[in-house]
Amino acid sequence: MSSIPDVTRRQHARTGPPPPQPPEPSYAERVKTLASQTALATLSTLSRKREGFPFGSLMPYAVDSGGRPIVLISSMAMHTQNLQADPRASLFIAQHAADGDPLGAARATLIGEAKPVPESDISLVRELYLAKHENSKYWVDFPDFSFFRLDVVDVYYVGGFGVMGWVEAREYRQASPDPLAPEAAGIMAHMNADHEDAMILLARTHAGIEATEAAMTAVDRLGFHLRLKTAEGMKGTRINYPAEVRTALETRKALVEMVAQAKARG
Prior knowledge:
By secondary structure, the protein is α+β, with helices and mostly antiparallel strands. It folds into 2 domains: 27-174, Roll (Pnp Oxidase, Chain A), CATH 2.30.110; 181-265, PNP-oxidase-like (Split barrel-like). Helices cover 30% and strands 32% of the residues. Strands 1, 2, 3, 4, 5, 6, 7 and 8 form an 8-stranded antiparallel β-sheet that branches. The longest helix has 18 residues, at 248-265.
């Protein structure tokens, strides 16, 4: 996005009612994206030793097309023994906090029953898991290791401060990961490093917010979130593209167009 031009700051005041909230990906889509992009989570099982108490384990995982988490676990592990006694479990997945604030990052809890993968599905599950965790090839065939899969019955999503809610398992299964997710980190890093003035202009033009500093904190196929430093303190806003984007190149073109239009208005 190196062709996004520098912009000048001008004062504009917004009058009238606040603008409608721009459309965003559904919570189901956000959780599906988070689950597909993350590889390490916390598995909570029900302790055999301390009945009724949750037992947490750090857990590498992969997901299938329906978003069901797949884990490769040893029969000697405490969490495996817990699951053999009671399959009820949850998997807590958290987004890396790029800005250093973990409470502002997205996270989700997938609740369900974790059971051994049937022999008919082992080949596909093995392929999916090794694609995510290549080093597991050294122990995947050990006789004491086996695949378990979490059949999700409910989902709870937290997208940051004030963004949270339950997601029906059916909606989660049917959702698709955001196509821009693999490019998101690079887009945000580039915008935050090189185009702060452009984001300040877009915040003023599209959200009516005057800012002295701006950072892109999330990006998806429909738009992006900005964290803004203003005279009244820190604020956040969402801005949408003129049309859906699916690649980094399409995102760049959309942002260049939006900045050009914002300058023309100014």
